[in-house]
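>> received
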Amino acid sequence: TNVPDVSIADARYVRSSVTANTTVRGDLVVEAGSLKVAASARAFNVPTTLTDATSIVIDFALGNNFVVTLGGNRTLEAPSNAVAGQSGQIHIIQDGTGSRTLAYNSVYQFVSGATPTLSTGASDVDILLFSTRSSTTIDAALLKNFD
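>> returned
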């Protein structure tokens, strides 16, 4: 049985409304009650550009990969729409001035409880890797100083 094309955002609906072995789209299939991506599909997610502001709030429903260029000292707030099991990365770029800092909401948990500091050179790039343990706990690690 085929159903109309749906977006990934509609996956919860698809999973609950179709039966096993149903083709949802050419690369999406429901098998044994779970939505699966066919082996021939390429899984990638174009980074979502975040708005630079004093408080940066990410909507995790927009994807898994994000990028922001810091124009001042900022705080990464708790994300909206966090779902357990979601993982991704945030590219954090220093502007042309550099020396920008980033504070983190308490939902972000780091290795050994040590909050990392960003690379500080002008145009430095760091990558914050994250894995969502629950809607209120996000495990994270910072990879630093990419050129």
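>> Residues 1-18 have pLDDT under 50 and may be disordered.
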